[in-house]
Amino acid sequence: MRKYQSVLVLAVAFSFVITVLPAPAAAKKQFLKSIAGHLDLSEELAKCSICHTGKDTEADADHLNVFGKDFRKALKEAPAKAKDARPLIAFEAVKDLDSDHDGVTNLEEIMLGSNPGDPNSKPDPEKLAEYRRNHPK
Ligand SMILES: [Ca+2]
C-alpha cells in the first residue's frame, strides 16, 4: 500500500510539473535535445547552461548567456519553412563563432564541456589541442 501511495504521489507531482512548466522552457529543452542529438553529446555535456545563465535578470527574461543570444538571433533568422530543422540551421550558423570571445569556438567549447557563453570557462588546453588535431578545418 505504501509503495502504491508513493507511485501515486509521484504521478501527481509529475502531472503538476508538466502542466505548470511554461511552454518556453519545454521549447528550449527541445532545442537542446535537437542539438545534443545532432552532435551525439553525452547527457553530461548536454547542459541547459550551454545557453542559459540561470540568473533572473530583467534585461533578458530567457536568462540567456552570450552564446544563447547568438543562437536565439540565428533561430529567428532561420527560414520558417524549415520547421523542425530550424534549431540545427541556427546551430550551424553559430557553431564556428566565438560568442564569449575567449579564443575557442562555440562548437569546440560544447564538445569539450566548457561554456560557450562564459569567457571564464575554457577547455583544458591539451584537450583543445587534441580536439583541433582530430578536427582540422
Ligand atoms: Ca567559454
Name the descriptors:
single chain, 137 residues, mainly alpha, 6 helices, 0% strand, globular, binds calcium ion
Task: Give a nutshell description of this structure.
With 137 residues, the chain is mainly alpha-helical. The protein contains six helices and no strands.
Main sheet summary: none
By secondary-structure content and strand pairing, the structural class works out as: mainly alpha
> What is the H/E string?
HHHHHH
Low-confidence stretches: 16-23
Find the count of extended strands (DSSP E, 2+ residues): 0
Describe this structure in words.
The chain is an all-alpha fold and 137 residues long. The protein has one domain. The protein has six helices and no strands. Helix 3 (66-77) crosses helix 4. Mean pLDDT is 85; it is low at 16-23. Bound molecules: calcium ion. Calcium ion (CA) is lined by residues 100, 102, 104, 109, 114-116, 118-119, 121-122. Residues 100, 102, 104, 109, 114-116, 118-119, 121-122 line the site of calcium ion.
